[in-house]
Amino acid sequence: MKWRRMPLGPIGTNAYIISNDIKECLIIDPGAEAQKIFAYVNEHRMQPLAILLTHAHYDHIGAVDEVREKYTIPVYIHKKEKNWLLDPALNLSFRVPYLEPLRLKEAEEIITGDGELSIGGFHFTVFETPGHSPGSVSFYFKEHDVIFSGDALFEGSIGRTDLPGGNTDQLLRSIHDKLLTLPEETLVLSGHGLETTIQQEMDTNPFLNGY
């Protein structure tokens, strides 16, 4: 499996395109600038299979409908945020003066809890990791020692919890119970910033010390 981190939009939210040996790909959090995603997929002659959303804040979903319609693929989102795609107040796009309010189509696939998912040649685990938002999830590819953590855990930081539905204690529990139990060499690919590892965050993340 290969992955490409693609910072998109005014605040550089990370989208990820992950691919396998037969050129299938999954697109995680296409937040803006759909044409950049199209260019990369076309250049590498990939076949998109699905869009996976770690959560539904505006900066993670802005290009969802363009990508979904281009490739005729389903969107996966947690049940607690399925309505956020349709509502600018919930996805917070109404707060952003330079952005048109986002009213997207409903997701085709609803994540209801922790569990295993298979899409094409990809097999991975979904972890519920709420705290930054109620329906935040992380996608763990055990065979490849990689987890896509959305805005739960960053290099040297954690997701903000001052937005509606945020909860600091819940986020710290999610990180401690779901993420820090993974092998220390696991690569953490976050919604913002650079990659890190579970070991690095256990050793150096000031928000996790003493929890």
Question: Could you characterize what this model shows?
Answer:
There is one protein chain. This protein is α/β, with parallel strands linked by helices and 211 residues long. It has one domain: 4-Layer Sandwich (Metallo-beta-lactamase, Chain A), CATH 3.60.15. Helix content is 21%, strand content 30%. It contains six helices and 14 strands. The chain has helices at residues 34-43, 58-61, 64-71, 88-91, 168-179, 198-204, and strands at 2-8, 13-19, 24-28, 47-52, 75-78, 109-111, 115-119, 122-128, 137-141, 146-150, 153-154, 157-158, 187-190, 196-197. The strands form three sheets. Strands 1-2-3-4-5-6 form a six-stranded mixed sheet, covered by helices on one side. A six-stranded mixed sheet has the order 7-8-9-10-13-14. A hairpin with a 2-residue loop joins strand 11 (153-154) and strand 12 (157-158). The longest helix has 12 residues, at 168-179. The radius of gyration is 16 Å and the shape is globular. The protein starts with a strand and ends in a 7-residue tail after the last helix. The model has no long low-confidence stretch (mean pLDDT 97). This is MBL fold metallo-hydrolase. Keywords: Hydrolase, Metal-binding, Zinc. Its cofactor is Zn(2+). It holds the Pfam family Lactamase_B. Residues 12-192 form the Metallo-beta-lactamase domain.
